TrEMBL record:
Pfam family, one: Peripla_BP_3
CDD domains listed in its UniProt record: HTH_LacI, PBP1_LacI_sugar_binding-like
InterPro entries: Cro/C1-type_HTH, HTH_LacI, LacI/GalR-like_sensor, Lambda_DNA-bd_dom_sf, Peripla_BP_I
Keywords in alphabetical order: DNA-binding, Transcription, Transcription regulation
Keyword Kinase: no
GO MF: DNA-binding transcription factor activity; transcription cis-regulatory region binding
Segments forming domain HTH lacI-type: 2-56
HTH cro/C1-type domain location: 3-46
The protein's name in its UniProt record: DNA-binding LacI/PurR family transcriptional regulator
């Protein structure tokens, strides 16, 4: 990649002259301007305004890195975090986790990370950062991997998976459902916690969780759809599905549509985790979810404490909220 130094050498002028030409901070003679313009074209030089800003900026910047996902969940959490940082006059730059990893490996992007006041990482085990301890040693960091609730607790966040599962199954039972299917996603720590809570609640409520209706998938929406369809085609079907993530519930909705199964007329669906897309699907999705505003408040308070060099005993116990929409119907007695 050509640099301003390369342009100056080829044009036979000083770096300062090229800078004046690029930034229009001082008049440059027409012949000199022509030589600089020709050198820029020949070298295919591109001024990196963002890099220049990072080099001189005095305002602190928080990097917020997220994993790619088939729902808006990480974007929703990021937006809530960014709003709270803005209230504290802190600037946020969102990047993908893969971009953050490239920054940490050096090269052209490394200078960006050197300007950071802190880093927030939101994601799951697919594409997670490679060296958590190294990042935490380099910068004030909050690292939330949704596949590892034990690590949540290390970051001061307590998520009540069993309570969420119990709220979902209790809601289904109150609406007359006894035969419940599950879409779990990858069977990692989070799914294991939700599954344990689901089984406890099913036993307490006298519900039938037939193993034939428990479907493990990857995080990909297409995989959830295809496996949901295969289960629903086999029959007999449950009257309701409890999914451990909204992408899995969207997979159930599309599989049901492909098979001509009416939701919620013939199959009710409830999801753990809220995201803004649950308002846009048809029918709108009923969810139980930990509080996104609480997550955002905790992240910001923790980063600010770390930036100030304080110990962080802060613990946030996340509330669980039931959001009723249209995807669950009441069965006749």
């Amino acid at each position: 990649m050509a640099t301003i130094k390369d342009v100056a050498a080829l044009a036979g002028v000083s770096i300062a002259t090229v800078s004046h030409y690029l930034n229009k901070t001082k008049a440059v003679s027409t012949p000199t301007a022509e030589r600089i313009g020709k050198a820029i074209a020949e070298l295919d030089y591109r001024k990196d305004s963002l890099a220049a800003w990072f080099k001189t900026a005095e305002v602190p910047v928080i990097f917020l890195a997220t994993a790619p996902a088939d729902t808006s969940f990480f974007d929703d959490v990021s937006a809530a975090i960014e709003e709270r940082f803005a209230d504290r006059d802190l600037n946020v730059l969102r990047v993908q986790i893969a971009t953050l990893e490239r920054m940490r490996q050096g090269g052209a992007l490394a200078s960006f990370l050197q300007r950071a006041a802190g880093v927030v990482v939101l994601g799951h085990s697919d594409g997670w950062i490679t060296d958590e301890a190294g990042l935490a040693a380099q910068l004030p960091s909050v690292l939330l991997n949704w596949d590892r609730p034990a690590d949540f607790r290390k970051q001061g966040v307590v998520e009540h998976l069993e309570r969420g599962a119990d709220m979902a199954l209790t809601y289904l039972a109150e609406h007359g459902h006894r035969d419940i299917g599950l879409m779990t996603g990858p069977m990692l720590q989070r799914a294991q916690g939700l599954l344990a809570g689901t089984r406890q609640s099913a036993e307490r409520l006298g519900l039938n969780i037939d193993p034939r209706w428990t479907v493990e998938t990857s995080y990909a929406f297409g995989d959830a759809r295809d496996k949901a369809r295969a289960m629903l085609e086999r029959g007999p079907r449950p009257t309701a599905m409890f999914t451990f993530g909204t992408q899995f519930s969207f997979g159930v909705l599309q599989a049901a549509y492909q098979l001509g199964i009416d939701v919620p007329g013939e199959l009710s669906v409830i999801s753990y985790i809220e995201c803004k897309q649950t308002e846009f699907c048809a029918p709108r999705m009923t969810t139980v979810s930990p509080s996104i505003p609480q997550v955002a408040a905790h992240v910001v308070d923790r980063i600010l404490a770390l930036m100030a060099g304080r110990n962080v005993p802060l613990v946030t116990s996340l509330g669980i909220e039931l959001i009723e929409r249209d995807s669950v119907r009441t069965l006749n007695a």
